[in-house]
Amino acid sequence: MEILSYTFMQRALIAGAFIGVLCAVMGVYVVLRGLSFIGAGIAHASFGGVAIGFFVGVNPVWTAVIFCLGIGWAIGLVSRKGNVKEDTAVGIFFASTMALGILLIGLMEGYNQDLFGYLFGSILAVTRQDVWITLGVGLGILAVVILLFKELMFVTFDPEMAEVSGIPAEKLYFLLISLVALTVVISIKVVGIVLVSALLITPAAAAYQWSEGFRRMMALAIIFSLISTTGGLFLSYWLNTASGATIVLLSTLIFFVSAIFSPRRRKKRRVAFSA
Amino acid sequence: MDEYIIEMEDVSVSFGDVPVLDRVFFQVRGGEFLAILGPNGSGKTTLIKCILGLIRPDRGTVKIFGKDPWNLNHDRHRIGYVPQLISVDLAFPLLAKEAVLMGRYARIGMFRRPKQADREAARIAMERVGIADLADRPIGRLSGGQRQRVFLARALANEPEILFLDEPTTGVDPTTTESFYELLGRLHREGITIIIVSHDVGVVASHVDGVACLNRGLVGHGRPEEVLGSEEVAKMYGCDAVFFHHGKIPHIVVKRKDNGNS
Fold first, then answer.
1. Which of A44, B34, B124, B138 would staple A212 via disulfide (CB 3.0–4.6 Å)?
2. CB distance B93–A150 less than 8 Å?
3. ipTM for this model
4. Residue ranges making up the domain that contains A53
5. Chain B residue with minimal CA distance to A172?
6. Predicted model pTM
7. DSSP states of B177-240 as a string?
8. Domain B4-90+160-253 fold
9. B76, B87, B98: residue with CB nearest A214
10. Any idea where the domains of chain B sit in the sequence?
11. Residues A135-161: tens digit of each pLDDT
């Protein structure tokens, strides 16, 4: 295929496939633990982090990493220790960090094409350095998930029971938020700040429709996500559309097909008839 | 008689301005089969959570196996916990045998994978509670009674010395409830100390050796027939509580009062 000979497309595909795997893996925890809103909150907060990077003139990925980790922990801390509900904490933090980003962008001169790429995702924006960052950070995230696979599954299913049996559920909760934050940051170049939470949630939610076991759900989420990111990148090239939007719409299509043909739904219906 | 394995002295807990436990003194000996009874909102679950180290009391001391509950280290493995069924996410994609194996996770330790011995322990635990045939069933497709046994097996997989159960039979039909308590009786005879939290006085009292009645403070603690016949317990359930004796164990029937508090 001709388009594979373009370096930018090669980079986008490598980064895209890898991001697809990461978002699917973390998405399983996000969907099952009910962290979707935190994921979306962290994603929007990354706008503030990216803007700081542009403002002070360093690679926005690094400022976004620090910023998103900080916001993730702040949401976790405020909702655990303070008298604020988790979704309220998310609501406050993601609006204020976006506001900070908008403020900083306003202080800068002229229109910034790169910033537009961060917001909506752009294949052309993926640099060689971005690919290395994605691979490095991504492999780190996957290593942690593999090493703590059973613990993360336990605290996602039943944090209280995990705590009682001697597993540090609270620390693992913050670890989970940190992993989600890192996943979000390395995904924004390809999918965009506005849409990255969708890639986190949708493939896992589609996989959930077909799964009654944890590992199967994770495997299916990875497959759906890979189809969405790589397929979406090709489609966006051919149709000349925004890569992030194409990827997200493709994954949403997979979700709706899954929801309609879900064995879970059929089973539920059968139970309803027999009752 | 065995020595105390749980000791609570002068324990008070409040959530914000609301007192939940008020100056509770409470001891449990090894080998007991005890029910903690009380109306909804009487602080039963909070009491258990204090003993398990999930909540730290505002005042007073809690010891389990002579240690602080939040600092148990390896003695954690000696505790089994079966949480309230409603706290469990039934939509979670998990097979029964996977759920039971979770009971071994803390013992296996971080960064390690379950070994054959752990799977064997999980299998034996499922056999002990009579659900070996349900191993490959997703937890979402189990009946209430079967699911309760899965979580009991999860606690047993860790080979605990003491077992805590929080409202284990809520939403489970009477026949299943009866056989569940018979199963607990068998486990107790095999040497496990069992503590059940329940608001269901009648059913529980006929199976256990001791009851503790709780209504923020401890109202009574002793043999079921002594405690449940007492004036204080009658007061706890309101003046409309009627006691009638059925064999040796008094049963309580609580009439609903006009203000809706039963």
1. B138
2. no
3. 0.86
4. 2-274
5. B110
6. 0.87
7. HHHHHHHHHHHHHTT-EEEEEES-HHHHHTT-SEEEEEESEEEEEE-HHHHTTSHHHHHHT-TT
8. Rossmann fold (3.40.50)
9. B98
10. 4-90+160-253
11. 999 999 999 999 999 999 999 999 988
